[in-house]
Amino acid sequence: MEKAIEALSRKGPSGTEVADWIRSQIRASRFVPGQRLVEVDIIRKTGGSRFKVREALQRLAAEGLVEIEEYRGASVKGASMSEIRQLYRSRAALEGLCAADFTRIATQAQRDRLRVITQDMERCIDEGSTEMFGKLNAEFHTMLMQVPGNDVIQDLVKRLNTPVHHLLFESFYRGDRMREAVADHWRIVEAIDAGDCAAAEREMRRHIENGHRVLEALDQAMHHDG
Amino acid sequence: MEKAIEALSRKGPSGTEVADWIRSQIRASRFVPGQRLVEVDIIRKTGGSRFKVREALQRLAAEGLVEIEEYRGASVKGASMSEIRQLYRSRAALEGLCAADFTRIATQAQRDRLRVITQDMERCIDEGSTEMFGKLNAEFHTMLMQVPGNDVIQDLVKRLNTPVHHLLFESFYRGDRMREAVADHWRIVEAIDAGDCAAAEREMRRHIENGHRVLEALDQAMHHDG
DNA sequence: GCTGACGAAATTGTTGACAATATTGTAGCT
DNA sequence: AGCTACAATATTGTCAACAATTTCGTCAGC
Question: Which nucleotide is nearest to A48 if distance is taken from CA to C1'?
Answer without folding.
Answer: D14
